[in-house]
Amino acid sequence: MDTNDNQERSNHQHHSNHQIHRLEEYFNECPHPDNLQRGRLAEELNLEPKQIKFWFQNKRTQVKIRNEKAENAELRIDNLKMKCENEAMEEALKTVVCPPCGGRHPGREEQLRYIQKLRAENAFLEKERERLSSYVSQHRGHSVPRFDGPSTSNNRPASYGTSSNTPPPKPQNSVLLQHLQPLSQPEKIVMFEMAAKAVAEVMSLIKMEESMWIKSSIDGRLVIDPGNYEKISTKINHFKSTSVRPESSKEVVEVQMDVTNLVDMFFDTEKWARLFPTIVNEAKTLHVLDSIDHGRQTFSKVIYEQEHILSPLVPPRQFIILRSCQQIEEDLWLIADVSCHLPNVELDFTAQLCTKRPSGVLIQALPHGRSKVTWIEHVEVNDNVRPHRLYKDLLYSGLGYGARRWTVTLERMCERLSLYSMSDFPSTDHAGVVKTIEGRRSVMNLGERMLKNFAWIMKRSDKHDFSQQCDTNSGVRISVRTNIEAGQPTGLIVCASSSLYLPLTPLRVYDFLSNLEVRHQWDVLCHGNPATEAARFVTGSDQKNNVTFLKPSSGGDNSELMILQDGFIDALGGMFVYAPVDLNTAYSAISGQVDPSSIPVLPSGFIISRDSRPSVGELDTGRMTLLTVAFQILVSGSSHSIDLNVEDSATTVHILISSTVQRVKAMLNCE
């Protein structure tokens, strides 16, 4: 009996102040720790893992109860306000007069007649739209879209990346814009107020460095101090749920691009998507607001944005964002984002529910055409779509969509743009079969578009899963889509992808994939024969980042084949993407005389990501790699396609990716 009493008392002993403080600190950043994290925390605090587990369960319950109480109180207040407003409007309607003549307000019958008139006009306009749509369809082959969004650009042609007339394949149902209406004047006033508050808050977050930003107790990155943040922010959680978690981060970087071009690319949605091809899947301008001038002129627009990274196992994120641009000083610009709501616009339910709190960038001009960029990301995430276990730690650590990923990508793309604009071949290039600077730019354009398209196919929500092969025990996901967009072969395309974990650094994996001496041992496009470089153009300060044309050794099926390859490695990982092209297509790109956007490529490749748990001193390298492999096969649609039905193609691509993964793992001694 005494033993049981002692055991019961030990199970209910209170934690020390130090233990509670550490647990509270950890909970603020990660309310759902996994077994490994609970074990580490238990070891650190000299507690049992079960105690850690029960403490977090109790804490989540307390937070849920507190949030529900706060929500109920807010709802009661809102209900009372609405009741008072309704009573006030009812009283006001009784005394409404016609402003022009001062006569009595229109009666119920007059209102009904006016509504009927509006409906008749609307029906007439709808018939006219259908008539014009039918006419255009007969003469151009497609119908008039219901909405195409205004553009704020100066109609200057895009000089780099995906051509503006050949965007990546469009998602079919990512956001419903069919019933998008112009903003009313009251809505615009609300938007202007939101923009002003967002700009002010972002500037405050940047200026209040020591008091607002603290180092994460998990990985040492800068995160917002929630206590100090509540003092300057009037916003509360957008999602009342214990599954909501905040993500905040801050990074500073210098890039090789002048402030004017950088601001232009940030504010133009098409250029924005091209500047971040491996993060932004789609960006569209929905509304352009008039500029306002309260001492400083501010330009604002409402945009739709979809972000996605790394793997089909990672859910995409969607936002409706109010983006504002303000010039603070002659060489200082601020761009602020904040989530906003538009009536009759519904986001894709398969994506994560996210709200962007005031976030943004401060861009300062530096000498020699460089810019200093301070980037702040602050998002509330409701994990309605749980991430796969492979990527859970990466996303919960904030490295997935945090400021670090944006600044690393920005730095790399600015380097690529700078090298692209050179008027002569740099010494780091191996021009080979490419004889002109136009040909060099054409190949770099084609490689960048290939990377963009490969990143796009990683987004699972726009593809139809093939149930017979999807999520099999081998970990291979099969999907099928019909492509009609320019830039990729037209027809039915089968895609297979698989994600896995390797106990190697991302750099080691990238160097292996780039090694031409062993390439033919894992790449079926080489047909067992070594490949040689026909041309190579460096795309960054690290010469490992390059776009290359490869020529497999002569013989058999690959004698009329070349391989276009584009790859990069940075602080967070890399990509290694390639596509087969026939000789005629290759030399069309090499000549520089053909628009590269018209050249169809069907990329396959690898996405390399470092693990989110680096050792001390290895923050930029990491010891482990998350690897995603994806292959595509054209089933039907052209004379060069593989003549197989969908079932056979799914089996073929399944075998292809499985065997390639096994060969890669064996050669890296990771079986």
UniProtKB/TrEMBL annotation:
It is found in: Nucleus. InterPro entries: HD, HD-Zip_IV, HD-Zip_IV_C, Homeobox_CS, Homeodomain-like_sf, START-like_dom_sf, START_lipid-bd_dom. Residues 150-165 have a biased composition (Polar residues). Residues 58-135 form a coiled coil. Residues 135-174 are annotated as: Disordered. Its main location: nucleus. Residues 8-67 bind DNA. Residues 184-419 form the START domain. CDD domains: homeodomain, START_ArGLABRA2_like. PANTHER family: HOMEOBOX-LEUCINE ZIPPER PROTEIN HDG10-RELATED, HOMEOBOX-LEUCINE ZIPPER PROTEIN MERISTEM L1. This is Homeobox-leucine zipper protein HDG10-like. The gene is LOC104779087.
